[in-house]
Amino acid sequence: MAQCPSCASEVLTWIDFDEAGAELRRCVDCDAAVTTDATLGWVTAAELEARGYAFGEPPPKAKGCGGGCSGCSMRK
Asked: Each residue of 11-41: pLDDT tens digit?
């Protein structure tokens, strides 16, 4: 986690590389570069979920093609 200057909040980051091959961090929400002097914070899965990110399998959908429905127009 690091402070994103574009989102103005602490966000999850991902690793990217610039044209010269140097490592940099980007915001997972908006892809903005997070400055190299930003303090990175490590969080647990529970902390990640508490901050609004999903961890693990996506929750089952209430609607959609889960099978067993008699009203779907997409039947084969």
From this structure: 999 999 989 999 889 999 999 998 766 678 8
CA distance 44 to 64: 31
**DSSP collapsed to 3 states, 2-56:** EEECCCCEEECEEEEECCCCCEEEEECCCCCEECCCCCCCCCCHHHHHHCCCCCC
CB within 8 Å of 1: residues ≥ 6 apart: 10, 11, 12, 13, 40, 41, 42, 43, 51
Q: What's the pTM value of the predicted model, to 2 decimals?
A: 0.63
Q: Which residue has the tokens 């990217």?
A: 16
